[in-house]
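Whiteboard transcription, Tuesday session. T.W. wrote the structure tokens on the left side:
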């Protein structure tokens, strides 16, 4: 079984919005949690200030506690973080949206019911991507629990959407005739606070 920790970025004035999920094997979860805390301690030493969360908008732009780091130093940290994920055999899934196109489609009423907000659009895309990738794994190895960073405005509608996925989602992952919808997704998504669930960062 796997756990996918998801968070979004770019829902402000940026032209592109992205939602990313880090997929972790549940059997290695305790080690990953400990190692992530160690990584934050290491980053705290680099910037000379406590780093409890890594917010992409601040990190990438060199704001807040990252202000003292040059662009190439921040790029190095990004590379090290991906190496950290790879060394622990974690996978990454993402959805990106050109927001101007999305909002044009939204205004024209061209988006299916249930995914007519940016957050739900990306969230469902993540689940469908994981469903498609994991349905070929043996037995329950691909079964995945999703944990999203708190999003109170979307939580109820998104939960309802996943509990009863619409028929139009079947074609995304080539649902077989006798296959249950989203059979690799365990239950409905869960939501947590990134300050407490570190991989939501």
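and on the right, the sequence the group agreed on:
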């Amino acid at each position: 079984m796997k756990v996918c920790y998801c968070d979004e970025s770019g829902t402000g004035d940026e032209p592109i919005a992205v939602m990313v999920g880090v997929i972790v094997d549940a059997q290695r979860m305790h080690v990953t949690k400990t190692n992530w805390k160690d990584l934050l301690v290491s980053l705290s030493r680099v910037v000379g200030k406590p780093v409890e969360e890594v917010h992409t908008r601040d990190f990438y732009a060199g704001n807040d506690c990252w202000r003292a780091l040059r662009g190439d130093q921040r790029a190095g940290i990004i590379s090290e973080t991906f190496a950290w994920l790879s060394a622990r055999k974690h996978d990454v899934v993402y959805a990106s949206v050109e927001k101007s196109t999305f909002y044009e489609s939204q205004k024209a009423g061209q988006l299916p019911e249930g995914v007519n907000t940016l957050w739900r659009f990306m969230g469902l895309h993540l689940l469908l991507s994981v469903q498609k990738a994991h349905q070929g794994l043996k037995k329950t190895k691909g079964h995945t629990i999703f944990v999203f960073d708190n999003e109170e405005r979307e939580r109820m509608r998104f939960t309802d959407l996943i509990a009863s996925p619409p028929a139009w989602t079947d074609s995304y992952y080539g649902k077989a005739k006798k296959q249950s919808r989203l059979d690799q997704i365990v239950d409905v998504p869960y939501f947590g606070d990134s300050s407490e669930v570190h991989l939501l960062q």
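Someone added at the bottom: Helices lie at 29-47, 56-61, 71-87, 99-107, 118-134, 152-163, 170-173.
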